[in-house]
Design a protein that fits this description.
Inorganic Pyrophosphatase; EC 3.6.1.1; magnesium; Pyrophosphatase_sf; alpha+beta; 4-stranded mixed sheet
Length: 299
């Protein structure tokens, strides 16, 4: 067996050991406002996906942990709740109804495994790029590998770059990454390799985030940095800044200003049993296609 193969096996073993201590406890009905997906630690206690899953940023190997919120090709807008105790994963709601993203032809739902980097926080009180402030959430992460990951999965990923989305006037970074156990992980070291191995995915990602709210009647999103992706070094620097902001939040320095950010963590001996009910039916309109008009030559 080659040295590379042995190193690969050792890497996968480390990933398994670091992530198998986390489990999910599901309650309520999926695709309804009652759904809750709580983090369960190895000792049985309930913890927070936001605060108790370690980021484990390794700047040398360019890896970190990701919490998967939305599996690729699905529509339900699941996210870590900033407001609920222990920050479970819930389905976002608007005007009392659970939210789904539209299918924008030719894409079905989310085009990546979508989630967040734990123990990071985009500070809404601090202006950074172009004077924009953060969106009060953990950093978003798009995992571009071939496997469809389930909601609540804790996945070690290799960081490849980032895109600075401007959403409703707030800075909303999208970190681009690939699972370290993906077959292409050892062949992709940065954005140039992404273009070579997965041609078109970066352009598709930018266009999806630009357009995904248009079918709901909102304007197209825009991007900082002239819509260009940021490389690995800049992305790791952003992760470190947001990790520092999270530490400030958890220390309580900004707690009085940010009452909407719940910082309840494990350590209180609280346990919880699963209580998952049958899922609600997904509304039929979620499966419909949305088509966007394009400017044609000569028009």
């Amino acid at each position: 067996m080659s040295k590379i193969s042995l190193a690969r096996i050792a890497q996968l073993k480390r990933v398994l050991i670091s992530t198998r201590k986390f489990h999910s406890v599901e309650r309520g009905s999926k695709y309804s406002a009652s759904y809750r997906n709580y983090l369960k630690l190895a000792n049985g206690e309930i913890g927070s996906y936001f605060h108790d899953v370690p980021l484990e940023l390794d700047a040398n190997n360019r890896t970190a942990n990701m919490v998967v919120e939305v599996p690729r090709w699905s529509n339900a807008k699941f996210e870590i709740s900033g407001k609920l105790e222990f920050n479970p994963i819930v389905q976002d709601t608007k005007k009392g109804k659970v939210r789904f993203v539209h299918n924008i032809f030719p894409y079905h739902g989310y085009i990546h495994n979508y989630g967040a980097l734990p123990q990071t926080w985009e500070d809404p009180s601090r202006a950074s790029v172009d004077g924009l402030k953060g969106d009060n959430d953990p950093l978003d992460c798009c995992e571009i590998g071939s496997k469809i990951l389930t909601t609540g999965t804790i996945q070690k990923v290799k960081i490849l770059g980032s895109l600075a989305l401007i959403d409703d006037g707030e800075l909303d970074w999208k970190v681009i990454a690939i699972s370290v156990d993906d077959p292409l992980a050892n062949e992709i070291e940065g954005l140039d390799d992404v273009e070579r191995k997965l041609p078109g995915i970066l352009d598709a990602t930018r266009e999806w985030f630009r357009n995904y709210k248009i079918p709901a009647g909102k304007p197209a999103n825009s991007f900082a940095f002239d819509e260009e992706y940021r490389g690995i070094d800049d992305t790791i620097a952003t992760i470190k800044v947001c990790g520092g902001a999270w530490q400030t939040l958890i220390d309580g320095t900004l707690l009085a200003q940010e009452d909407d950010c719940q910082v309840t963590r494990a350590g209180k001996g609280i346990t919880m049993k699963p209580d998952l009910k049958p899922p609600h039916e997904i509304p039929s309109e979620v499966n419909k296609w949305s088509f966007l008009y394009r400017d044609l030559p000569g028009q």
